[in-house]
Amino acid sequence: MDIAWGALALSLKVAAWATALNLVLGVGAGFLLARARFPGRDLIDALLTLPMVMPPTVLGYYLLVLLGRRGALGAWLQQHFGVSLIFTWQGAVVAAAIVAFPLVFKPARAAFEAVDGQLEQAARVLGISETAVFFRVTLPLAWRGILAGVLLGFVRALGEFGATLMVAGSIPGKTQTLSVAIYDAVQAGQDEAANGMVLLTSLVCVLMLLAAGRLAPGRVANPASP
Known about the structure:
By secondary structure, this protein is an all-alpha fold. It has helices at residues 2-35, 41-49, 56-67, 72-81, 89-113, 117-125, 130-159, 162-168, 178-187, 191-214. Helix 1 packs parallel to helix 5.
C-alpha cells in the first residue's frame, strides 16, 4: 500500500500544478473569448476544446513529437536550458494540464458571459480602471462557475492516464501516478493492490465532484430541504 500512497501523493502534486497552470491560462482564455469579438473566434474555441474529445493517447503522441529531444520545443528547451520534459513529473504536469484544460476554460467562459455587462459599464462610468473592474466586479460575479470548473479540471488531471503514460512513463516514485500504478498492478495480476488504489481514487474523485456540484452556478440553497 506504500506504493499507492506514494502514487497518490505524486498524482496530487501533478494535478495541483496542472490546475494552477489551467487557472491562469484557462481563465485568461475564457475571459478573452467571452469579451473579445474577432474573426476566427469560434475556430479558436474549437481548438481549445479539442483535448476534451481527442483520445489522450493521440495528445500524448503529439506531446512526444513536440517535447521530445528532436521536437521543436523539446530541442529548444534542451539547447537553451538543459531541460527535458520526457519521462519526468514535469512532463506529466504538461500532459495533465492540456487534457484538463477544456474543463477549466469552458466553465470560465460561460461564467464570464453570464456576468451582466451593465454592472461592468456602471463601474467604468464611476471611473474605475479596467483592471479594477475585472477584480472588483467581473471576477466576484463569476467566481463560482470558475471554481467549479477548476475543481473539475483538478479531478480530470488527477485521473489522467493515456497522455501521462506516453509522456512521463511509469517510473515508481518519479512519474508513476495513481492511475498508472493501477494499470501496472492489473497487468502484474496484483488484484488486491489494484482494488485498494481504485477505491482510493474513486473516493477522492467523488469528494471533488461533490464540491464542484455545490459550487455550480445557479445552485440555490433551499432552507426547507433536508
